[in-house]
Fold each of these.
Amino acid sequence: MNRFLVGITLVFALACGDDDGTSTPDGMGGDAGPAACGEGQVCATLTVPESFDGTPREVFVGLYSSLPPAGPPEVFVGNVASPAIAAGMPMTMALDDGGASGDYHVFIALYVEGGGMFNPEPGIDYMATTAPVTFGAGPVELGEVALELAE
């Protein structure tokens, strides 16, 4: 599986949804709908399969010029600790794009309790990648991103 180096030093700790599932001012929330995507942000609504029953620990978002991702991302977008996501409860996010400019694949990993730390653990953690997306020309709205069990 792909290896993320421990040397990633930039970490964003963003609040997740409120207890009632409504969106919070930083754009994180439950099923309240997508946050407004502003200049210099990457936005998405993350979903998990109906069979998801894990305890979410962290969402990681990074940008890579090629797939499969290997090593640390070329641009670190952010981490979300204790994300408010569950089966039937999507999570909206609006994160700073890290100053990215150019075409990148977005890699998103959902780490769950008992899963990996720097690599999604096959059969436990969830992940998704996108086709190349152009950054630096306005907000990047990914829409709905379905996270699948890591293989």
Note: Confidence is low (pLDDT under 50) at residues 1-34.
Amino acid sequence: MSGPQTSSVETQSTPQLPVRVTCWPARQKPVWNAVVAVLFACAGSVAGKISESPLMGLLAASALILSTWRRWVPITFEISRTGVERIILGRKFRCTWQQVGRYEVRPNGIWLLPEAEPTPGEFFCGLFIEIDAPKESLVNTIDHCFRTRYSSESSFILPRAH
């Protein structure tokens, strides 16, 4: 008989919170974004030539740029035990963990989705944290926060009156 056996149970430690992630595709992928900008300029030029109005071309290019604003503006996500806070141009937008039905890890980021079960069009309502490759520590942090589901309200519980 050999010596005492020990089981190796993996224990996950509580992640250090809050975690900040900044998504700024224009800075993170400059070559790809330069190609996109050139394509938008070409589309604006074509629209201007076809309509015979430079103003219409400028309007078309501006509409394309505005529709992809997340590509050009830095967005910071602060993940805490109470939820996810997006900071866009100094403004803060909060999403509590109670508003997240499930999350999905994708090759280019993590989706926080409102419904526990898949529904048509849910990706229009979800929150996407874009990163080049999901880091295991970020996925573990989101998993921990999602599973514990801390409320953004006080955790104080009033005793029931009899």
Note: The two ends are 59 Å apart (CA to CA).
Amino acid sequence: MIGTMDETRSARVTRADVRAALMWALERDRDALLAHRAAVHSSKSDLTRRRADKALVEQWRARRPDNGKGSTSRE
């Protein structure tokens, strides 16, 4: 399955973003962490993993004190 142009462009998140979002979820949002884990482990599809990563990173960015603006390496 191929995503739309908008989806593929916005789905690109860095490994650092995903790692930071996972660490945030581990410390502050267990439900988000479990949802990501369930999505990733329920399918071997790379697209499914990218979508789960994107969703987690979006949640993390939305809940960060600076609302995701600026560098992701500060955390």
Note: Confidence is low (pLDDT under 50) at residues 71-75.
